[in-house]
Amino acid sequence: MARRPEKLNVLITGASTSIGRHLVLHLAGDKKIGSILAVARHEKPYFFNDLPPDSFTYKTCDILKHRELNDLLYSRAFKNAKINTVVHLAFHSGVTRGQKVHQLNVKGTKTLLEKCIENGNIKKFIFKSSDVVYKLAPDNPVFLDENADLNFDPDADQWIKDRVDADMICRSLMDNKKMNIVILRMSNIIGRNIAGQLNAYFDSKPIFKTMGFNPLINLLHMKDVIQSIRLAILGRTCRGIYNIGGVDTAPITTIADLAGSRVMSIPEPMLPVVNWFQRKMQLTKYYYSVDKDRQKYTCLLDIAKAKKNLGYQPEGRVEF
Amino acid sequence: MNKSQRKRALAIARRLLPPEDYERFLGININDTGFGFDQFGLEKETTILAMCVVQYIYKHYFRVLSDGIENVPLKGKAIIAANHSGVLPIDAAMVASDLIFKMDQPRILRSMVDNFMGFLPFVNTFFCRLGQVVGARRNFRDLLQSDEIVAVFPEGAKALGKRFTQRYQLYRFNVGFIELSLTHKAPIIPTAVIGAEEQAPLLLNIKPLARALGFPYFPITATFPWLGPIGIVPLPTQYHIHYGKPIRFFDEYPPETVKDPEKVRMLADQAQIIVQDMINNGLDARESVFGFQES
């Protein structure tokens, strides 16, 4: 008799984030998933109240605190759930700076990753990275694959540096024999209640863009974010880095037009000042300093590897 | 452009273009991803608007004549390999226009532009909307995989800075296009462009200045900088474009040949000889550089 495949039991950090919420709710209805242990710094949010207690557990934990993390990874809940997969989503998505933010983004990722390897029962660690880790330059090809240069610019914003550092930490431990590490580098996630640079940009009134440039950008629907993470969880042998892109690709002005926003092109040197004023007047949550290259140069992800190895096929079209 | 801007662009084009040309341009197909652009940023309406201007240059300024257009495939991937010259890359624009004006089913020629174009505001976006991409090997590969027709100038951008005394003498071809042709089984259409080499007779290339400015060359021509900005305007030579029979090295050589640099070099040399022969034949057949009597 063929042996039934072992169910996948998943720990999700950053479960109270928008992606975490969608992922938990999606996986809760997936027959291939056994139990889910959702972890976040906040108390259990209301949207998890209806999930069945036999397959879903919620724990508060600050992954920066060794004691709390140890308690979690050696807790009864963890053992009972037989966790074998970790999805790491705990990351500051807004442009907030400072040591605390850096610690969660980089140190938090490192600590969690090392503890997971040390634990021995965890077979897979999935890290949601983003396309901001790539270096943008005018001589880049239109499509960037997973081997494209990363942004090691010393003058880059902390928001970018943290993402590059965390990505590099996961990458550096990818050769370990105990656990498969998967990095999903996602393009711009667009949707309601999603904190992100691009969402903030298209919500700005009006949108200011760099004069003379109108690069193509790719939009990723939440449906595809969840699909890619699910495929990474289910792919038993999958490891490595995968670019995840969406269906919709268009220039900034076209997307802004569809979003019903007015676009004003202004010379590049004026943009930091205008953006500062806009933020002070609470007309935007967008930080130009983070995205200045993205306003000029196209960054589209080559998703051929994800299609081939994960079976990923983007489906979600962004509705405006 | 948004929908209303596109409508307006087409209305302008209809006013400016002869009806048969307008209909022809409307027949251009692009791989629209859903927003009116292809995946590389090409926009049909921008191309049609550009053609409103380019048609005058093509028909009345350079009075382009061509033969062998039947050698260019109506669909599927192909590589147009041509000689390059004339300080400004007008030869590429004229070959691209020729494909749009002469082919039974007009096709947009995709060219690789120099990296420094990517830095330039407006130029960057304009080139992108016309279907031109930065000269990265990856872009070349992606275009061929999308069944596009791609122009290569295997002599490299430095050939634009060829001195007048070296006109119609090809620089040694780079091998990249041979490798991609073999890998992707794309036929090479050898192409000779006659006329471009006399449009801006280059006397001197000031290399240190070019390096300082980040340009591939800094030209001193018969007219530039002596006549100021007007000196940049090329002379109205007549263009003759000859398309040769497709070269299908991949029928004989498998894709693994790319691992053998000597063979690839040999094939690039063969392609160079074919283009050089076509140039020599074209020069023999040409009656005058400016061709005003003929027109």
Description:
The complex is a heterodimer of chains A (320) and B (295). Chain A is α/β, with parallel strands linked by helices and 320 residues long. Helix content of chain A is 34%, strand content 21%. Chain A has helices spanning 18-28, 66-73, 76-81, 99-119, 158-172, 197-203, 222-234, 252-258, 271-280, 288-291, 304-310; strands at residues 8-13, 33-40, 56-60, 85-88, 124-130, 143-144, 180-186, 188-190, 207-210, 216-221, 240-244, 248-251, 263-266, 300-301. In chain A, the strands form 4 sheets. Chain A has a 7-stranded parallel beta sheet, with helices on both faces. In chain A, strands 8-10-12 form a 3-stranded mixed beta sheet. A two-stranded parallel ribbon of chain A has the order 6-14. In chain A, strand 4 (85-88), helix 4 and strand 5 (124-130) form a beta-alpha-beta unit. In chain A, helix 1 (18-28) crosses helix 7. The mean pLDDT of chain A is 87. With 295 residues, chain B is an alpha/beta fold. Chain B has one domain (3-285): Glycerol-3-phosphate (1)-acyltransferase (3-Layer(aba) Sandwich), CATH 3.40.1130. Helix content of chain B is 39%, strand content 13%. Chain B has helices at residues 3-16, 19-26, 44-61, 90-102, 123-129, 137-145, 176-184, 207-213, 249-252, 261-285; strands at 65-67, 78-82, 109-113, 133-134, 149-152, 188-194, 202-205, 219-221, 240-243. In chain B, the strands form 2 sheets. Chain B has a 7-stranded mixed beta sheet with strand order 1-9-6-2-5-3-4, with helices on both faces. In chain B, helix 1 runs parallel beside helix 3 (44-61) and helix 3 (44-61) crosses helix 4. The model of chain B has no long low-confidence stretch (mean pLDDT 89). The interface between A and B is medium-sized, with 28 and 28 residues.
Compact description:
The complex is a heterodimer of chains A (320) and B (295). With 320 residues, chain A is of the alpha/beta class. Chain A has helices at residues 18-28, 66-73, 76-81, 99-119, 158-172, 197-203, 222-234, 252-258, 271-280, 288-291, 304-310, and strands at residues 8-13, 33-40, 56-60, 85-88, 124-130, 143-144, 180-186, 188-190, 207-210, 216-221, 240-244, 248-251, 263-266, 300-301.
